[in-house]
Specification:
GMC_OxRdtase; 15 helices; FAD/NAD(P)-binding domain; single chain; alpha/beta; Cholesterol Oxidase, domain 2; 7-stranded mixed sheet; FAD; globular; 2 domains; about 25% helix; 7-stranded antiparallel sheet
């Protein structure tokens, strides 16, 4: 059995950052395990290639949700990256931090001011390589490249004008702590090519002799000596393997796979584990609970007298021109992030801060994976940034190869249904603004027939779909929070030598896209891990206080 100082499970957005930062110390020896393969698939790197990565077993776990009552009985595809770079290899590339209050809430809930906005901003800046250069809010010497998009569409310009007429001001920067406004998203690209965390953080780190990267390695269970996590078991090349950790095992498998692996290893709700035939090692009832996700409501609007991608890409000649433009300039539609224009607004005036995010696209289709419509149209998707609905992720069986049970529980609260109705009305107000009038906008989906609160909530259930931001399933919290899974240093309560570093630790979802906040979490975690090592806590293991409600153990 090979032995390492640290074992990182998952080479996604967090895992790549951790592997890079920890191995900058030549005395630290790290094993990084990734269930997927290398990021050498060409569609990963061409921005529009997300269309060929999502739903592709080469790059996606191919998960689905359970049938959702709030979505009128529908089940949704639930993409999760299964490749070096994880979700940063298949996501929408949008660089977004969220709002100042998100992090101040984390600090309050965890009892650690280190999570406040003013204290995490330097971490965002440390890893950032912003196209405008260094400033009060941005860094320019880090690994995580942030660029302006390399395209413009008339219909998006007019939507921005319409949003401004509806009371949403123009902004050039969504990432200063208050993202209220309308403007173009900045993206994680370098000269029109996707910039994933494997390129940003692993490329140079992989040359270090103290980093071992194993792809095609799916972890089946954690190993223990009493209450101390000592290593992992994994399958690679069809054969079982094991590795030991001198200091810590770090779970960075994401908000879906991390809670599943904890449960497979006997950490979770005792009754649930026993029902699956899994021996209970330690009771933590919060494992897999508190799932939060952003549900987007896709309003499709037909337009006349302005071109959209629907018709530009409808002919062989149009597609050829698009391909040539990207081949020579890395610009145009093939350089497009899935959404180009963004807006943050209040669904109603009573909201203290923006609670709705728009992703606006110069195209339309019935659902992801379907062909574009034959008519010109744009899509304005609105999502509730801070949903009150809570779902769960749990192991389906004791077999690690079985996909977990994913139940987001969308639109299950009166508040979320009200915000959904208000958001659809706000979209209609923007579309009815004078700036769009010359194009004779006509609502195609959900359709003008839906008017009352009840009708609009029903419509939301029919058109709503995930925007791929699951978080919270191993939430961070205080020792007296019976549903917290990790403490404010991301150590699993009641278990030594085990830490969680990924989006699952967010106690509340951020008010925006979640990839870059996950990278920031890994930046802070790398500092904590090295601090613990210097103090000797890493070698001895850290026993965090167990939550009062989770004291039961087998």
């Amino acid at each position: 059995m090979d032995t390492f100082d640290y074992i990182i499970v998952g080479a996604g957005s967090a895992g790549c950052v951790l592997a890079n930062r920890l191995t900058q110390d030549p005395d630290i020896n790290v094993l990084l395990l990734e269930a997927g393969g290398k990021d050498d698939y060409h569609w990963i790197h061409i921005p529009v290639g997300y269309l060929y990565c999502i739903g592709n077993p080469r790059t996606d776990w191919l998960y689905r949700t359970e049938a959702e009552a709030g979505l009128n009985g529908r089940s949704l595809g639930y993409p999760r990256g299964r490749v070096l770079g994880g979700c940063s290899s298949i996501n929408g590339m949008i660089y977004m931090r969220g709002q100042r209050e998100d992090y101040d809430d984390w600090a309050r809930l965890s009892g650690d001011d280190g999570w406040k906005w003013d204290n995490v901003l330097p971490l965002f800046k440390r890893c950032e390589d912003h196209h405008r250069g260094p400033s009060e809010f941005h860094g320019a010497h880090g690994e995580w490249r942030v660029e302006a998009q390399r395209l413009r569409w008339d219909i998006l310009e007019r939507f921005a004008d319409a949003a401004e007429q509806a009371g949403i001001p123009r902004t050039e920067d969504f990432n200063q702590g208050d993202n209220f406004g309308v403007g173009y998203f900045e993206v994680n690209q370098r000269r029109g090519i996707r910039w994933n965390t494997a390129k940003a953080f692993l490329r140079r780190a992989s040359e270090r002799p103290n980093l071992t990267i194993v792809t095609g390695a799916q972890v089946s269970a954690l190993t223990f000596d009493g209450r101390r996590c000592t290593g992992v078991k994994y399958i690679g090349g069809g054969q079982p393997h094991a590795a030991a950790a001198r200091h810590e095992v770090i779970l960075s498998a994401g908000a879906v796979n991390t809670p599943q692996l904890l449960e497979l290893s006997g950490i979770g709700q005792p009754e649930r584990l026993r029902g699956l035939g899994i021996d209970v090692r330690h009771a933590l009832p919060g494992v897999g609970e508190n799932l939060q996700d952003h549900l987007q409501l896709r309003t499709v609007v037909k337009v006349n007298g302005v071109r959209t991608l629907n018709t530009r890409a409808s002919s062989l000649w149009g597609k050829l021109c698009i391909g040539v433009e990207y081949a020579f300039n890395q610009s145009g539609p093939m350089s497009m992030a899935p959404s180009q224009l963004g807006a943050f607004a209040r669904s109603d005036p009573s909201q203290a801060r923006p609670n709705v995010e728009y992703h606006v696209q110069p195209l339309s289709l019935d659902k992801f994976g379907d062909p574009l419509h034959a008519f010109n149209a744009f899509t304005a998707s609105a999502c509730n940034l801070r949903p009150t609905s809570r779902g769960s992720v749990h192991a389906r069986s004791a077999d690690f190869r079985d996909a977990p049970v994913i139940a987001p529980n969308y639109l299950s609260t009166d508040e979320d249904r009200r915000v959904a109705a208000d958001s659809l009305r706000l979209t209609r107000r923007i579309v009815a603004s004078p700036a769009l009038a010359p194009y004779q906008p006509e609502e195609y989906l959900p359709g003008a027939a839906f008017q009352t609160d009840e009708e609009l909530a029903e419509a939301a259930g029919s058109i709503g779909t995930t925007i791929f931001h699951p978080v919270g399933t191993c939430k961070m919290g205080r020792g007296d929070d019976g549903m917290a899974v990790v403490d404010n240093r991301l150590r699993v309560f009641g278990i030594e030598g085990l830490r969680v570093v990924d989006a699952s630790v967010m106690p509340l979802i951020t008010s925006g896209n979640t990839n870059s906040p996950t990278i920031m979490i890994a930046e802070r975690a790398s500092d904590m891990i090295r601090e613990d090592r210097r103090r000797g806590a890493g070698a001895a293991g850290v026993m965090a206080p167990a939550p009062l409600a989770a004291a039961e153990s087998a």
